[in-house]
Amino acid sequence: MSDGEATLVMAAHGTRSAAGEAVHAALAERVRRARPGRRAELGYLEISSPALPAVLAGLTGPVVVVPLLLAGGYHVHIDLPSVVARTRPDALVAAPLGPHALITSVLARRLASAGLRGTDAVVLGAAGSSDPAALADVRAAARLLSGLLARPVTAAFVSAGAPSLPAALERLRSGPAPRVAVASYLLAPGFFQDRLEGVGADLVSGPLGADDDLAALVWRRFDEAAARRVPAPARLRAVPAPGT
User: Which structural domain range is residue 23 located in?
Assistant: First the structure.
């Protein structure tokens, strides 16, 4: 499959938050601006419109689906593949967005905008999952953020997963840090962002939101998936010679 032939479909979870839907739409627009002339559509697994099955069914030609999700879990491993199998079994499904260094950069900027200080303890606050692999993805994201901030970062969860965000805050408040900051490991505002903001941390960053780094990451996941259908000799020919 040629990269130039495929349509990108961004698959978001869905939300009852109008602000959350606006962020998804704004991110989709940044994705389109990153590669002018390329077709890129947005669809939702549930709650919001347009529904992903309808988006997929209305497309012709090759399709690559990129989950607008930050970690593995039910929606990545079960829900999304089931939708694709029913509606566009020929489509390729890319890896979720996280963990990735581009997300880490956005997290650091959001924390800085929220007023992070050098003496603050930091928690990476995520929704959580019953899937151990999804929790592992969040912990890997916390390690990336720890490296960038040059301080420990604890991954904690507001639903399924340990430690819970309240437990992580309680532990850190007994330590030497004067304040505890929560970095929101969420894409958009909504139910889980409200939970993060209501837990009692000294500061909570905004969600990742519509950001050019995230748009670049969407296309990176697209390219990785599209390459799986390019024959090996073609991939080899596309690699420039050393020094070029």
Answer: 3-97+211-238
